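Entry:
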Amino acid sequence: MIALKYSLFALIATGFNLLFQYLSLLVYADMGSLYLAMFLGTFVGLVCKYSLDKKFIFYHTPKSKTHDLKKFIAYTVTGIFTTVIFWGTEIEFNIYFKDEDAKYIGAVIGLSIGYIMKYFLDKQFVFKRVPQ
């Protein structure tokens, strides 16, 4: 059941990520626009996925806003490596395939690989259950 929920939440976060990339590129399509769009999409996807994972995957209830912020920072740090995979794949598809939608295909592939890795990183380092 966790795999199904995690996959659904990954799809939701990916949808938000790509939607905000698309909207960003509609608003600004000049120098560096893809990188700006990727950053914006990543941030929106990160916040969305953290909220869903925290509550419905790892069943974590923060003790305070400070505690929640520390968890979010740890969640973000585990995402750095997976974001490099996602961004690298999206950029490579954008460079090597001349189709306008290739970057989105690369993003979906990169995000899929990243989310699989991220689950195990978060389970081990962010939401690790400490025996009481």
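The radius of gyration is 16 Å.
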